[in-house]
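Re: folding output
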Amino acid sequence: MSQQKNSNQTKNFLWYIGKMIINGVTIALEIHRYHNIYLSGGGHDEVLELKRASQKKLWQKNLQQLKRSGYIKIKNDATKMIIGLTNKGQTALLRYQIKNSPLCQPGSSTLIFFDIPEPAAAARKQLRKFLQTTDFKQIQKSVWQHKYDVTKPLQKFITDYNLTDWVKIARAKILI
């Protein structure tokens, strides 16, 4: 029992020493990077303020890039900034969600079936393009398969694009 207590104390001490070393290295690197601020009499608070300003500038740059690319729209209110996704942004988000979905159980797949009438041919074309770009495999002209469990993101896509009357999703055990 005494040996186990000593072992735990040793581990805790080593963890504490390691944490102090990491903090020391971090501070040393920070002093090296921001040495001009420290040499001019500025302290840690000024360095933190500089880091915050740098982070804010980076966020603004990224927001502007997303806006220029057509993924978001930005509306400035009197007291706040309102950011919303455009259709292009929503589609990109759905693609990301599909590509990062969990695998289906072994031998199972997500299937999507559709029969979109000719007057909505543009929607059918858009759906096929979306399925191709998200790694679906075409089984038949209007039947597609994916090895990931993508039912939730697909349901959102189908609802957002008003395809619920023509598109069905299933998770199925593939026998062959």
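--- second protein (sequence, then structure) ---
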Amino acid sequence: MQAGLSAAPARTQWVGEIQPLAVLVITSIALLIIGVVMISSASMDMAVEVMGNGYHYVIRQLIFAAMGCMLALVAVNVPVAWWERSGWLLLGIGLLVLVLVLTPLGRTVNGSTRWIPFGLFNVQVSEVAKLCLIAYLAGYVVRRRDELLNTWAGFLKPLAVLGVASVLLVIQPDFGATVVLVTAAAGMIFLSGVRLSRFVPLIATLVVIGAVLILTQPYRLKRVVSYLDPWKDQFDTGYQLTQSLIAFGRGEWGGVGLGNSIQKLFFLPEAHTDFIFAIIAEEFGLLGSLIVLGLFTVLVVTGFVIARRAEKAHMPFGACFAYGITLLIGLQAGINMAVSTGLLPTKGLTLPLVSYGGSSLMISCVCIGILARVEMERLDKEKQATEKTGSRKRVGARYD
């Protein structure tokens, strides 16, 4: 066992012992910088028109980024064991904020009640709830592993919690956050060792529920219809998607250049938030889009590497939590980019670390900090094991 541990770095020298942590930090900072630059470009004209200050959104994003970095540093210094011990507290917080937003405390924007005013900015409760619920479910998977793997009751209990949270999210309504949370949680449970056959009834049920939700809400049905053929009604239900596709078309291979986007000039709604990826494609072309896609791919793969190494180091909660967090980031990024390119129906999801928005940015930074903490604890555990083995060898050699 020890020989295997000592030989591992030589066999995987291309990643190295510290590389996942370094790659995680570098990739996250790169996406943060890209986000600030692109928000500066995409929001300036709208900020002048709406706020009277062209730098309004970028200044706020810089403040959010600074706060996010501070929260990431806090998360790095919080032991993983605290998240495990605080599972019930986090579950309570997650469900509480989802309930509070439906009270008069909640703020409604564009027909959705997703925010609670908090001083100088609004907190999007779904971002807080997703992290809290993933933390609780990771603890459940570790505590009740045998029950989860071997009984239907153990499998259905976490799904009941997800069901309550999903109902509260749909009431807001926030269908996109519901999809991300349920899919990430299901993926985390699957990676814990639950048989795929257990998920067949769940998937069938979710498909039926999703179809009902779409068919019973005219605006959702219009989104699906416009997604199938956005050009059929390009000035109404298909407007947002067609404008996004125009941005991709204008970008071609190398883009029109930073700041030269036409679509951001009030043609593409939510250009600095949900559709920031389309502006990136217009100003930097296919090359810029692939760079952003590549950075997210590296970030997600690094998260899975950290989770897998924690699993091998016998850190079950850290591994499960890291899997869940990585799935949250990866799914949200993937859905956002797929929506911008017309691969999925329009959803109100931000691009993590890139889109404008304090809640999404700060929670994403916390997630990065947690992943870094998992890797740091794994490295510390491995270092202690190595030192312990070395001391035993020295004692044995002394007696020889």
